[in-house]
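From the pipeline queue, job 12 of 40. The input is one protein chain; the requested action is below.

Action: predict structure.
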Amino acid sequence: MREILVFASGWVLFVLAQAQNSVRSTANGLTGWAGLLHWLKLQAVNLATRAFFSGLFYAWVMQLVTNKIKAAGLTLTGTAIAGLAGYAANALLYQAFGLMPWLRVEVQDLAPPANAQIVPTRTTLPTLPTPPSETRS
């Protein structure tokens, strides 16, 4: 039971670090606790999907991390391995699900900064004037 709690703690730690980076970014309008709550609402489906797959593959992830740590010649307790596995599982799923457009959340588009200015873009290129034709007499 302790390993599961530490696994979940590592998983949540990754989410908190991700949320802090997004809230502190100047590329969006998120600030303070209200910004954190807004970020959590925007990311709810993504986080629920990552939590589901992390839980589903808990045993496999634990075994994989244990094997990698042993291969590196390190000896860690099951509790330490569980924390690393939780953090790593969330990080891996974050990267993998970032490739799926329906799970991607563009925070700067959904919560733009207060001072955001919309700059019009030209849809057609200007035409260059044609040089006068040279005629020979």
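Job complete. The chain is about 60% helix and 0% strand.
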